[in-house]
Amino acid sequence: MPAPDCFRQEEIPVQGPEDGEVLLKTHYISVDPYLRGRMREGKSYMAAFNPGEPMRSGAIAEVVESRNPVFTTGEYVTGMLTWSEYQTSSSDGLIKVDPDVAPLSAYLGILGMPGLTAYLGLIEIGRPQSGETLVVSGAAGAVGIVAGQIGKILGCKVVGIAGSEEKTQMLKADFGFDAAINYKNTSNIRKAVGEMCPSGVDVYFDNVGGEISDGVIMNINKFARIIICGAISQYNETRMPTGPRLQSVLLANSALMKGFLVNDYTEKFPHATGQLTHWLLEGTLKNKETVIEGFENLPGAFIGLFEGTNKGKMLVKV
Ligand code: NAP
């Protein structure tokens, strides 16, 4: 488990922008579970952070000085930026965002990487059909809360799994989930999912892995689709735990279980963003964020992801 003393805050001068560069003032920084994977050595899908160098993640910033003709002072951009209040950027990978279309913070959540993950994971792998049962773990988080709502839009029965009564109540009362299970006061997930899903589970959007997923998968239907989006229950493990061998369950149900990374689908981002924006603006999709104020609170916000202190997207307002 990362601790506050893993982080250090420093004051250093900011260099003015050179030709082609922009000077950025950071407004929002995204903290995300995958950053934990970059804090260890070994093979992963993204390079490990170098200890002593600034963390990087998705952020929203304002252009305060530009020596790049594409960007004008006062414009807002999103991109992978360092955790700093000001920074010069080569401008590579910066995308303009419009605060008149949606609040700036939404571009890091429902209209950003987590929203795209929910949409593309569900549509491309889950392929939910109206009338089917969708189970979402990590359901009250950034990805889960969008995945569950999309399931409802597509006509599914949606059951969420989350870590508190407050969260399960919120999912049902505010986000249209048909049922929700608090895994922290449920000793037998397999039985609880069976009770909430009497027709079985057709699609499982898995954000957490581990014992919760073992319990859900024991309830799958023939031709079920299991989307391996994340496995946060294992991100702080020092040894990989073993669980039930699932091959025979998958075989007997002709089920599909597929890992995916949202960046596998970059060519589909414009369409997916358009659909998410449309649903958000017409009110079919609701946004949920936990915004922590203050740059110095970045480590605490990040650690909070592993303690479940967020509802919806966890962000820091610099
Ligand atoms: P998030 O769900 O907003 O935040 C993490 C949540 O995980 C916490 O709020 C907490 O909620 C839950 N959690 C923490 N420890 C847990 C544990 N031991 N067991 C069960 N639940 C636990 O984060 P997110 O950004 O939306 O990401 C969700 C998952 O999707 C993560 O696994 C992430 O790595 C993955 N992801 C994958 C992709 C991709 O391309 N494949 C992209 C984005 C995110 P509770 O209170 O419910 O415990």
Give an account of the 3D structure.
This protein is α/β, with parallel strands linked by helices. The protein is built from nine helices and 13 strands. The protein has helices spanning 34-37, 113-126, 142-153, 165-175, 189-196, 210-217, 247-252, 269-282, 298-304; strands at residues 22-30, 56-66, 76-82, 86-89, 95-97, 133-137, 157-162, 179-182, 201-206, 220-228, 256-259, 289-293, 313-317. Strands 1, 2, 3, 4, 5, 12 and 13 form a seven-stranded mixed sheet that branches. α5 packs across α6. The radius of gyration is 20 Å and the shape is globular. The model has no long low-confidence stretch (mean pLDDT 97). The protein binds NADP nicotinamide-adenine-dinucleotide phosphate. NADP nicotinamide-adenine-dinucleotide phosphate (NAP) binds next to α2 and α3.
Instruction: Please tally the helical runs, counting DSSP H or I stretches of 4 or more residues.
Output: 9
Q: Estimate the mean pLDDT confidence.
A: 97
Low-confidence stretches: none
State the helicity in percent bands.
25-40%
Say how many strands there are: 13
Radius of gyration: 20 Å
Spell out which ligands are present: NADP nicotinamide-adenine-dinucleotide phosphate
Largest sheet: 7 strands, mixed
Structural class: alpha/beta
Molecular shape: globular
Which band does the percent of strand residues land in? 15-25%
- Please give the alpha-carbon distance between the first and last residues: 24 Å
What is the element string, with H for helices and E for strands? EHEEEEHEHEHEHEHEHEHEHE
